[in-house]
Design a protein that fits this description.
This protein is mainly beta. It has 3 helices and 15 strands. The strands form 2 sheets. An 8-stranded antiparallel β-sheet has the order 2-1-4-14-13-12-11-10, with no helix packed on it. A 7-stranded antiparallel β-sheet has the order 3-6-5-15-7-8-9.
């Protein structure tokens, strides 16, 4: 009985640590950087130059230890998914995933519109999710989500935004015994659904851990639609994390869709 009890304890700790600790690194050699709207800030310092999957952001050790900086990801509708986290066996930070958004622009929108286009409007939905993740999807530690609907008078240009509706603002923590014990401490929801130039749904989740205080972190997901820009360039988003669990990654996902003309 004594041996069984103390064998189970380190096994439980194994599952409390984000599983990226045990991940196998990406293949060596990053593809050439491509022009895109992605911007990355590490502790407020911007990464210069075009960014691609495999881009490495050098980080110095402090007192012999790797730091745990904040990440801010900002992008437009051309970028669908970004994952950012520690490079294997290094203090450096690596862009582990960069996927472009291939959502096609819907055809023949003007044909379905009536003469009272401004009153009825074209409806668009933008969705942003920021996750702190491990090696596989079951290892998602926390998820912060924002979804917003807006209307435009034109199918190709936002002009004045109107008819904003918040679809979802949610904070989720993976609480499951015995392995994951993350909790939602606060979920701060701010938004603007009435501006004619910028509407947004911003969700800021503050997360704790039942056993390990050092695993506490906060994550923000912000879905944005701006007036006076063509669609889909009017759509943008940002994901932010602070003090995430060591060895974990920030994954930021964005999508948009046309919801119809009412």
């Amino acid at each position: 009985m004594f041996k069984k009890k103390y064998l189970l304890f380190p096994l439980a700790l194994l599952f409390l640590v984000p599983m990226t600790v045990f991940a196998i690194g990406e293949a060596q050699g990053a593809p050439p950087a491509q022009e895109n709207s992605l911007q990355i800030f590490i502790d407020g310092t911007p990464l210069t130059g075009p960014i691609s999957k495999g881009t490495v952001i050098p980080q110095e050790r402090v007192d012999g230890e790797c730091g745990n900086p904040s990440y801010l990801i900002q992008a437009g509708a051309d970028v669908q998914r970004v994952k950012l986290g520690p490079k294997e066996d290094s203090c450096d930070i690596e862009v582990k995933t960069l996927e472009m958004n291939e959502t096609p622009f819907p055809a023949n929108l003007e044909e379905e519109a009536s003469a009272s286009a401004y009153e009825e409007g074209y409806t668009w939905r933008v969705k942003t999710m920021a996750k702190i993740v491990g090696i596989v999807s079951i290892d998602d530690l926390t998820r912060t989500r924002s979804e917003l609907d807006v209307k435009t008078a034109s199918s190709s240009n936002t002009n004045d935004l109107f008819g904003g509706v918040i679809i979802l603002q949610q904070c989720w923590a993976h609480y499951e015994k015995p392995a994951w014990k993350y909790t939602v401490e606060r979920c701060v929801k701010t938004n603007n659904t009435t501006s004619s130039t910028k509407m947004f749904a911003k969700t800021h989740g503050y997360y704790g851990h039942e056993k390990f205080a050092s695993f506490a972190h906060d994550v923000l997901a912000n879905a944005i639609v701006r007036g006076n820009k063509s669609i889909p360039s009017a759509f943008s988003y940002e994901c932010y994390q602070n003090s995430k669990p060591i060895f974990s990654d920030l994954e930021c996902y964005f999508d948009w869709e046309y919801r119809g003309h009412e």
